[in-house]
Amino acid sequence: MIVTTIEMSGLLRDGVLVYGLLVWVVWLSFWVWKLRNYKVKTNDSRDVLGRLGSLSDVTSKIQTQISRVEEKLDRLEGEVLLSYRRVGIVRFNPFSDTGGNQSFAVALLTGEKDGIVVVSLHGRDGSRTYVKSIKGGEGVDFPLSKEEQQAVKVAK
Known about the structure:
Elements: H1 2-36, H2 48-82, E1 86-92, E2 103-109, E3 115-123, E4 126-135, E5 138-139, H3 146-155
Antiparallel strand pairs: 1-2, 2-3, 3-4, 4-5
């Protein structure tokens, strides 16, 4: 008799558990159905899942655009290093018989301190212009004069 009572209470317990799970599944199904058919109060007639799908599409488009912008940024950073972005100007008077600082040296350097120095020497009988190459802040083919070195120093 005791064994039968224990088996009956176990069956009763299992039945209540199954019934509870069934009620829970029905309740969840109702809320999933309600959520799927929920319309946001806008002019758009799509349900929530349709809206989530369109948001996913928009997100993927934005990610594509971000990757394009990053590629362009990387390319532009490389180009900026190669462009003349440092400028130094020094005015001076190389000849004692002329007045004023009418001669000048202009250094145009990249981010890696490569570039050129343009020198214009003004005298009584005319002006002359020279260009020297710069690599790493130093003259390549010819040594730099004191004024050219000052222009490179100003540009750094």
